[in-house]
Amino acid sequence: MLKNALKGDIRTFSRLITQIESRSPNALKLMTEIYDARKGAVIIGITGPPGAGKSTIVDHLAALIRKEGKRVGIVAIDPSSPFTGGAVLGDRIRMQRHATDPGVFIRSLGSRGSHGGLSCATRDITYCLDAAGFDWIIIETVGVGQTELDIMELADTTIVILVPEAGDTIQTMKAGLTEIADIFVVNKADRAGADQMVQWLVASVELGEKENAWKAPVIMTKALTGDGITKLYESINNHQDFVSTDKRHLKRQKEIRTAEFLDMCREAMGQKIIESAKNKKALAKIVSKVVGGRENPYRGVSKFLKYL
After folding, report:
1. How confident is the model over 207-253, as pLDDT tens digits?
2. In 3D, which of 228, 239, 120, 259 has the Cα closest to residue 182?
3. pLDDT tens string 42-69
C-alpha cells in the first residue's frame, strides 16, 4: 500500500492518510518509512480570523503553482463536528476548480478541539504529501486567534491574512502577530479601513524589526478577483530564499525537531499504554474513580504510573 501510495495512486494514498489520521496500530511503522522518503517540499502555513478569505487565497495560490507545473497538497484544518469528530466545513467545496486536477490533493481534517486548531495528525499528513512528491504543501488553519502559534512549528513560511474590519481585534490580541507572520496579507482591500490596517501592520513590523532579520511584507489583496496574489506568491518565494541561508531559521529548526520528537514519544507512549490489556484495565478503574469524583486526578496519575 505504501509503495503504491507514494507512486501516485490517489485512492491508495487517501487510504494511507486515513490510516495515519486514525492512528492505526501500524501508523508508527508507516511514518518511519514515509519520513525517509520525504523530498523537501515547500510548506506554507496560512492563518487568520474566520471569514478573512483564507480558502479563496489558497485556491488562487494553488492555481499559480500549478501553472509552473508543480504539484500542490492542501491540508485544510476545519472545525470539528461535536457529533462525529469530522471536519465540518469541507474545503473541497470552496476549491471546486481543482477537484479534477491530479496535481492537486486536498484533505480536510477536523481540529478535534486540539490547541491551535491543528489536529495531531497534521504533521504526519504533511510528511505523507512530501514523500508522495508534492512540491508545495499549503496548510490552512481554523483561524482562532493567538493559538495559531502552533502553525510556526510546521510551516517554512507563515502567512497571516487579515481584513480591514479586524483592526480593533488585532490590537487587543495577546500574541504578537509580528512574531507569527513571515508575510501579512490585508484581504478585501477595497473595503474602508484597508489603508489604515496596512499602516498599522507596517508600523508593528518596523517596531519589532531585528538587525539582518526578515522584514515581513504587508500585501493588499482582493481574493475574489485575484488582485495581489501574484505579489504574494513572489513574497513567498523571496522568503524561502531568505530562510535557506538564515542562521536564526536553522537554529529554530533544531528547536522544532527537538519538540517534535518529544511529542512523538509522548503520543507513542500514550498509544502503547492504552493498547496494553493490563494497563487498559488498570486505567479504566482509575478513570472510573476520577470521573466519579472518588479519586484525586493527580493521585490517580501517580497510581497509574506504577503500572508502567
Report:
1. 766 766 888 999 999 988 899 999 999 999 999 999 988 888 888 88
2. 239
3. 999 998 887 888 889 999 999 999 999 9
The total of other beta-carbon atoms located within 10 Å of residue 22's CB is 9
pTM: 0.83
Q: Give 226's contacts (C-beta < 8 A, 6+ positions apart).
A: 60
Beta bridge pairs of residue 218: 184
Q: Cell numbers 478573512 correspond to what residue? A: 52
In sign, the C-alpha dihedral spanning 97, 101, 103, 104 is positive
Q: Which three cell numbers stand for residue 73?
A: 497538497
134 and 41 Cβ atoms separated by less than 8 Å: yes
Rounded to 5°, the CA angle 208-240-181 comes to: 35
Domain boundaries, the chain: 38-244, 260-305
Q: Which CATH class is domain 38-244?
A: alpha beta
Query: Environment class of residue 149 by beta-carbon count within 10 Å: exposed (0-12), middle (13-18) or buried (19+)?
Result: middle
- Please give the average per-residue pLDDT across 33-39, as a whole number: 93
Whether 223 contacts 188, CB under 8 Å: yes
Cα–Cα distance list, 48 to 108, 114, 148, 150, 162 (Å): 17, 17, 8, 13, 6
Average pLDDT estimate for 135-163? 78
How far is Cα 6 from Cα 128, in angstroms, rounded to an integer?
8
